[in-house]
């Protein structure tokens, strides 16, 4: 697939949108970048090609622009599999701890508390990294996509 060809770019975006929608609806973000149907750079190039093609034809509506911007920025939510595994374990430990009705002294001795204590700093760094990447992608998108 050639992300610089408007027809191919449209197909790339459609395939990516299907994956993104699945992850958004199931709440499975961040997700592994391995789940993307194409490399991240290919998807970025396809979105840029589509924006430029639609804008030059006068067809870039506010709705399309918002969709493409959301898709572009959402690439930040696709990270390495090891990071997804850590976040998943962290979330599961938090859920387990929230559902644990034992006395506090018993809960903090359990595996859920230990997982949270050991990984909270790293989970926070991952979240900050994803947020910084999303902001950078948003700035990139604004740089090449005309505002209405």
Task: Give an account of the 3D structure.
The structure is a single chain. This protein has helices at residues 6-26, 40-56, 62-73, 81-99, 104-107, 111-144, and strands spanning 31-32, 78-79. By secondary structure, it is an all-alpha fold. It has one domain. Strands 1-2 form a two-stranded parallel sheet.
Shape annotation:
elongated
Strand content: under 5%
Structure annotation, total helices: 6
Provide the succession of SSEs.
HEHHEHHH
In terms of per-residue confidence, which ranges show pLDDT below 50 for 5 or more consecutive residues?
Answer: none
Helix content: over 70%
**What's the end-to-end separation, in Å?**
30 Å
Structural class per helix/strand content? mainly alpha
How many beta-strand runs? 2
**Strands in their spatial order, largest beta sheet:** 1-2
Mean pLDDT: 91
Counting structural domains, the number is 1
The profile of the biggest β sheet is: 2 strands, parallel
List the helices and strands and how they pair.
Blueprint: H1 6-26, E1 31-32, H2 40-56, H3 62-73, E2 78-79, H4 81-99, H5 104-107, H6 111-144
Parallel strand pairs: 1-2
Helix pairs in contact: 1-2, 2-3, 4-6
Short description:
The protein has 148 residues and is mainly alpha-helical.
